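Hey L., structure's done. Input below.
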Amino acid sequence: MELFWILLFSSVYPLTGGQGVYAPANAQIVHSGEACNVKDDNISERIYTIKEGDTLVLQCIVKGHPRPQVRWTKTAGSASDKFQEKPIFNETLRIESIKRIKGGRYYCKADNGVGVAAIKSIRVDVQYLDVPVLTVHQTISDVRGSYYQEKTVFLRCTVNSNPPARFIWKRENMLIEQSKDNGVDIYEPLYTQGETKVLKLKNLRPRDFANYTCQVSVRNVCNIEDKSITFRLTNATSPPMVRLSVNDTVVVDPGQDVLLTCEVTAGFPPPTVVWSLYPRSLPLSAQVRGPTLILRAVTLDDAGVYNCTAVNNVGNPARKVVNLVVRTMSNLTFQITPDSNKDSETIQMGRDLKLSCHVDATPQDKVNYTWYKNGAPVFNSESLILLRSDPDMAPGTSSLEIVDMKFRDLATYSCVANFPGSRVPELRVDVNISQNSVSPPVLSVPPGGQVVSVREGGNVELVCLVVDGKPRPPILWSRAEKDLLMPSGTATMETPDGRLRLKNVSRDMMGAYRCQTAPYNGLNIKRRELQVQLNVQFPPILDPVFQDARWRNSQMVTLRCNILRSNPPRLTDIRWFRNGDFVRMPTADLKEMPELKFKLEPTNNGSYECRVSNNAGTSTCTFNVSAQPYNAEFYFDTPNPVRILKGNNYSYNLQWTQKDPEATDRIIGYWINVRKNKQNVLWKQIDLKGKEPEQGVLISHTISDLKIPLSYEVRLSPITTYSTGDFVSRIIQYSEPYTYPRPSDHVCGFENERICGFSQDRSDIFDWTRQNHLTRNPKRSANTGPETDRSGSKEGYYMYIETSSPRVQGDKARLLSPLFNVSSVRGPKGSGRVPYCVSFYYHMKGKHIGTLNVLLRVRSIASVDSVVWMKSGHQGPEWRKAFFDISPSGPFQIVFEGIRGAGFEGDIAIDDVSITIGRCKQENTVASAGKTVLIGGSHTLPVASWLTFGLSCIVSLLYR
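Output:
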């Protein structure tokens, strides 16, 4: 039953229009840059090899209608799915002077909104070879007690390269070979970064003191030359040692000059000293003079960990670290803590009281606190206890505890923080302790301030005041909803007067805000808190914001503007405008969805606006209403649009479809304009002669008298009875006609990378591969696959399926021919269909050969695939020829489907494919090219063929 309906739709397609030539995107990646090599690895992944510094050029050749849009993206590694770089929207990806970090897998995604997007990938392998690094390490060990010492030297050569480098060691100019010198070992150590080779000199001999060269090579891949480095080993060779002129930690005042010297005390060759600042670069004002680093007038930004490194490539680098601390002091605060044991919130005689003082400082532990009472210094006594660092408070907090408070303790207490001997100014805070000067705070929100409304984009002030209490602490603001940050990006914001000022308010700032008393600069008691609600008003949110609406003239038009959200929700006005003029209509119901109905006439085409207002503002739905036809859609997949004319001229078969042709008035023709260098070459009207465009059906026009090899801009615009559509343009350019299909030479031998317009099917498991004898994988499977192409040439190409791992039995690879548009070709007199002859050569050698199917894919509402030829199993070592006739009912493709057999010795190849108009000529002779066996006729599935034919006839009769 399913087959019946497929055939039914296929039969009525020419009368219903359907999808026609609309087709999902297909993509193929080709290269045109400075590639060293492009190859396929064992898992059929294309690898593009390029030298670092060269230019990468990848092109995404796309098919599909409408023309697909191309998006390039990249992943960092073969297993990563996360795109690491911004996408590039262009068919050509070009990277000048490519760096190694640009290597990875590049994806070309082509999408035209029809079906599933096509995605192809290629792995870019950037080749490079750095200058090697040679370091020397030595050990001394006792041998046989104390009779003598053995001194062993290791020369370690490390390099970063791709592909892996080959190492060569030389003493002076003589090659060092381990097999010819018992005093050396050459090996590759474990757990090293980069590629490393070690030359071990055992029990140093006099002749071992010499010049040693490490030469690295990638065997001239991508023309990368060898690199080398030389080290002179002497009996004075020794690792570096350094010492600092200052302590490990240096504390200075802002504005001071700092000199840091890293003195080299040992090392040969003489070490090089380098200063650095972790984790950032040295300050711009820093001066390095040999081993000395000079910092003039240091600021807080200059503080950090400075590193001194001495390197001479012998042993490990010598390092010293200096921590530079720049003194700073700010934000001195105080706390008054009543007797915590009594849960008191007020000062009471006979109870304890604690005064605390904290300053933000660097270094925190060097701050000195001094307490005063009425201006006199405070010393420890039975009633007054000084705590240099209060364990119950934040680190670096000093406290003064008043025990069993008496009237004599009522006074003004001062806390002074300073750095002894420093020029940093001291900070001071005074706290008045009396029965009337200390009381708990009381928070209050002014009347009407619990909910504050503001228009989006405006400024607002949230108010939360301390109306009573002494001393009055600052107010801390935060969002009441968990995990929401303040507009500043912080969790809290401090306001000394309780007024939170917000600018350029947005709707995401709407919500509840919490105000709390700060625990400092006041009583250290339970925090008081309140909430203020911020209500952000915004104009209505409408849908659609813009819509291009096309109708036929004299048709009733309905425009609707949906209100998605609004604050305040109550609307104040709804008005419609046409081309800026107010449209008079009955008063709109503000509770209903805005709607405008009218009859479209040539005089009322234009821009319609629905303006919806509330107290916060006005928003607009815009409709571009017209009977103007939609744009034409150029068809880019014409197999062979160029035809060479007499002289130096050529013609171009321009094809296109009309987007939604029934949406507007009947299209009667097209304006076509051909330009070269913005000068008109052709301007005329194409008359459709009463034939209306159909959805998805190609329209063709031949442009003649074009000059070889020039390219032209073609502009096209549809015409209706009342209007003309917008122009769309494309570039047409001369190209040599495909070598296939062509009456004089209609054989595709896959000799160029365009493979005659064939493409890989994106819905299969793996792809067909183009290769010849010279590009074969040297690790290929034996006893399968051809040695040459069909003609016997080792340089000639063919297409084949590689059945080695990871392929498994039943995996399919499909190769699609170009699309043939049979609607422009007439069949023999009395026949409604055009016969075509399909011929090709195939090679099926191997004990694990699977199946080669040839399918006819007819494009219709639903594409129909039918098997028209098949062959399975081992067919011998020769190329064999097959040919058969087809009579497709509509636009068609030929599909070569290779199915993997039971093992890896199952490669299948095809070559010299021909698809020509007319029936095949019967051939009974053996072809002369190599060992080629000719097999005439077609091998089809009889039941399927008869069923297709019979049902097609029944459907045709029923239709009549």
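The two ends are 21 Å apart (CA to CA). The chain has two helices and 70 strands.

-- N.
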